[in-house]
Amino acid sequence: MKCLLLVDIQNGFCSGGNLAVPNGEDVVPVANRLIAEGGYDLVVASQDWHPGDHGSFASQHPGRSPFEMVTLGGKPQMLWPDHCVQGSRDADFHPELNTAAVDHVQRKGEDVAVDSYSAFRDNDQTALTGLSDYLTGKGVDTLDVCGLATDYCVKASALDAKAMMPDVDVRFIADASRGIDPAGVETAIAEMNAAGIRILTSKDVLAGA
Ligand code: VGL
Ligand code: ZN
Predict the structure, then answer these.
(1) Is residue 32 part of a domain?
(2) How far is the centre of ligand 2, averaged over its atoms, from the C-alpha of 115 (Å)?
(3) H-type helices in the chain, by residue range?
(4) Ligand of minimum distance to the alpha carbon of 49
(5) CATH number at residue 189
């Protein structure tokens, strides 16, 4: 059972969004092609889905600015602009993403007290979203991960997938992903590779990899 996990392909992470990833929208046609022609049995999309007073928002920390570090729930936390607030346009999937083909939406980041980059569990690794049980229940043995942003939610989701489901072949689809910081993307790819996650392109997948 082969599954495609589309991470946070939301307006908030595309041009014009509150936490825009450079050229984030460029992943949309690649994702749609993978959905249509990648041979997947299952398509899952994660959705960053924050309450308006989420603790990762700089607006909740008087005197602090986005992209500064603070401590949240005892852990280092990067502060972000308010983004992907539940029910807002920023939180909607990109309008051109083929959401009709998505079998399951996994929301995350709903707890004000902890951030959740990963689609599988909160950053403190305590609360699970249920996605690993869902995929295991479906008999997924290959999981292709792509989307936004490579150096945050895509990396965290791929690493957690491998850590929580060691028997699953987890693969990162590079050209269907974009990152916030180029150096962070390099590190993310190295970390994923070191964890046993294969680095592929959509061309590899479409050719039958
Ligand atoms: C993300 C920062 C904050 C992401 C989500 O989707 O990569 N990054 N929230
Ligand atoms: Zn977020």
Answers:
(1) yes
(2) 7
(3) 27-37, 131-138, 155-164, 182-194, 202-206
(4) 2
(5) 3.40.50.850
